[in-house]
Structures are given as C-alpha cells and as structure tokens.
Amino acid sequence: MANMSASVVCFVLFLATTAVWGQGAPDSLRFLAVGDIGGQTLPPYTTHEEIATAVEMTKIADKYSPQFVLELGDNFYTFGVTSVTDRRFNETFEKVFSAHSMQIPWYIIAGNHDHYGNTEAQIQYSHVSSRWHFPYYYYRFNYTIPNSDKVVDFVMLDTILLCESSTPAHAPTPAQQMQFLENALRSSQATYLFVGGHHPVYSVGSHGPTACIVSKVLPLLYKYHVNAYFCGHDHDLQHLQTTHDGVTVDFIVSGAGHEVSTSTAHLHAVPSDSLKFHWADSHAPGGFVYAETTTAHTTFYFIDSNGKSLYSTTLSPRVPPADIIG
Fold first, then answer.
1. 205 CB-near residues (< 8 Å, 6+ apart)
2. Residue 40 in contact with residue 223, Cβ under 8 Å?
3. Residue 231's closest CA among 204, 266, 200?
4. CB 82 within 8 A of CB 40
5. Helix H or strand E encompassing 20
6. CB atoms closer than 10 angstroms to residue 20
7. Least confident interval from 71-80, 93-102, 275-284
C-alpha cells in the first residue's frame, strides 16, 4: 500500500466503502447528478468529453444500480433543440447514454443554452422517451428510501425564467415560480429535501454566484431546512456549505458533463470558508456526482471521467421547521 499513489489509495477506499451498496443494498436510494452534458451544435453532435463522462457514469450505474439521474440543464449546446423531432435528442442523448443501466428515469431541467432553442419541445419529449422526465419548467417529485417510510423530496427549478427580467409569453412568470417553490418547500415533511436548478447559488468558477438565486432562493433554503441545492452551469465539480441561524445548506455543483473549465475567477466571491471542495482537472474530460441516501445519512461521491473518486461528503437527515404544513 505504501507504494500506491494518493489517488489510487483514495479510489481503493471508495470501492471498499461502497462495495455493499454496489450489490443493490435494499435500504439505499441511489442516484447520479450531472449537468451540462449537451454535446455540440454540429455533427457528430457529441464531444469527446461528453462521451467519456457517459462511459464512466455507465460504469458506476452498472456497479451500483442507481434508481434515477438528475440532469441539471444545458442539455443541448449551443442553441437547444428546434422541435420534438430534432435529431439532437437521439444523437446527443439517446445514443450516448444508451447502456441498459442508464435506462432509468432522467429528471430534466433547462439551462440557458436550452432556452436559446425550443424549451417546450424538450418538455414535450417526455411523451416520446420513457426515461426523459421533464413535465414542466419547474416541478416536484419524490422517492421513498427502500425498506422505510422515509421520503426524499426533489424540487426542480428553471433558474433562467426565474432570473430573467422579461419572461416569454408562453412561460410562467418569476412570481409564479417563486410561489410554487415556497409552497413545495413549506409542505415538505421529507427526511431529505433537495432543490435543483441550472444556475449556482454559490460557485467559485467562471460564472460564480448568481445574485438572483442568492437573493430569491437562498432565504427559502434556510427557512425550510433544505439539505442541499444541486446545480450545473460552471463546468467543474464543487461542494460549498453555509450556515444561517443554525441551519446548514450544502451546495453541490456538478456541471462537468460536457467539458471542464479550470477557472476559479470567483474564488473570493463566495462566503468565507464556504468552499469545501473544488475540482477542475484539464486532464480529465468530465465528471459527475453519485449519491447514496439511507435513513441515517446521504453521501455524495464526486467522480471524474477517468474513474477516480475525488471527494465525498455526508449529510444528516433534516429536521423540518416546527410550523411545517403536512
């Protein structure tokens, strides 16, 4: 063991601690979280980085049998799709994530590049593909942790519509989405409560914190004791954490599905001591997050497309606010 590199030791420890889960342990809810997988505008409509990420996600899925995938926006670069029959659905998504282990529900939200095209077509594609779940711009879904009565709630947002100064005629207004968000969070009695959006709350990457999300969404994350907020947009992997009035919220950035950006332009724009982990290795084509949720804890594993386990962090179950609506 003494002659092994630190990265190899880390990966061995990762395998050792997750081997039981890889056999499909009956008491865990498992899922993948990835953003910014969107390939490229011109043929072959994919990139080397996207394919490499898909290959490693498949290996993890083959081994650990996740129940679903969170896809955090920018599904199709650079200008989204034109219609529900756009070939990009097949060339950039279906053919790339084609393994049997990836034929599980994918919970989709839109990113800014998706809004350059026909976002309604992506919503309609939910009626074409059995695994593409994108019922509306924002929505809520939940899972029960196996062999328990404990629920995990997910609230998915359209941060582009939420933060744009003008809203397209066919789309809901920011006020409508904020009302949905508060209602969803207020009514949740879940053991774990997660929110997903394309734009970060906090990030040290090239885009950095999103002022609109910090001002509008973050107070509700604290108020309703949300465990974690997932996002993409910055093309790296990050874990940040902040605490307000005794409530801790974790921020999981998983935007390396298509390429890796090494920028830390906003390193000093996030709260002091909030950054727990940042990865952006130009020698690795991409990365993603694998999550294991039990009644006792949730663990997030950050993995690059070379198969290296980079980092992990564990969260405790939430205690809903005392005045929560059942």
1. 234, 235, 236, 238, 253, 255, 261, 263, 264, 265, 266, 280
2. no
3. 200
4. no
5. helix 6-22
6. 10
7. 275-284
**Residues 224, 229, 230: CA angle, nearest 5 degrees:** 155
Residue 251 to residue 217: CA distance in whole angstroms: 12
Please provide the DSSP assignment of 219-251 as one string.
HHHHHTT--EEEE-SSSSEEEEEEEETTEEEEE
The structure tokens listed for 225 are 């004791």
Residue 87, token pair as written in the block: 């070939």
Task: Read off the pLDDT of residues 231-270 as tens digits, 9 standing for 90 and up.
Answer: 999 999 999 999 999 999 999 999 999 999 999 999 999 9
At residue 279, does pLDDT exceed 90? yes
Pairing of strands 237-244, 247-254: antiparallel
| pTM for the whole structure | 0.92
What whole-number distance in Å separates Cα of residue 137 and Cα of residue 237?
Answer: 24
Does residue 53 register a pLDDT over 50?
yes
How many angstroms separate the CA atoms of 26 and 216, rounded? 38
Cα–Cα distance measured from residue 118 to residue 134, given in angstroms and rounded to the nearest whole number: 13
φ, ψ (nearest 5 deg) of residue 311? -175, 155
What average pLDDT does this structure show over 76-97? 98
